[in-house]
Amino acid sequence: MAFGIKKRELEEWKESVRSGQISFITHYWYDPRFPQCNTVTKVGCSDIDKLINWGNQYGLKAEWVHVRDTYPHFDLLGDRQRSILQEEGMHEQIERFIQQKK
């Protein structure tokens, strides 16, 4: 279940993914399998080969791509999420959603 994003933000992410761009969206999220995580970043692209090649630079495995829907994507969680967002210059998403470690 996603929280903290506007419908317009989600629609813009979907359009970007459909157009073949590597696109990021971060939102609050709860999944009992990952109780230590309260956010997820979805990195999507309709060009699955492009998405897999992008993920390779961060050690993401091709089998981690979610392709069960119209918007193929990686889910980024925890420390990997933060480090990739930093590397990609997604500072607004870090400041908005990811609490600073104390």
What do these coordinates show?
This protein is α+β, with helices and mostly antiparallel strands. It has one domain. It is 37% helix and 19% strand. Strands 1-2-3-4 form a 4-stranded antiparallel beta sheet. It is globular, with a radius of gyration of 13 Å.
Short key terms for the protein model shown above:
102 residues, four-stranded antiparallel β-sheet, 4 helices, 4 strands, YneQ
Layout of helices and strands:
Layout: E1 2-3, H1 7-18, E2 23-29, E3 39-44, H2 48-56, E4 73-76, H3 78-87, H4 91-97
Antiparallel strand pairs: 1-2, 2-3, 3-4
Organism: Litchfieldia luteola
Protein name: YneQ
Brief synopsis:
Helix content is 37%, strand content 19%. By secondary structure, the protein is an alpha+beta fold.
Q: Trace the largest sheet across and list its strands.
A: 1-2-3-4
- What is the SS-derived class? alpha+beta
Low-confidence stretches: none
Helix content: 25-40%
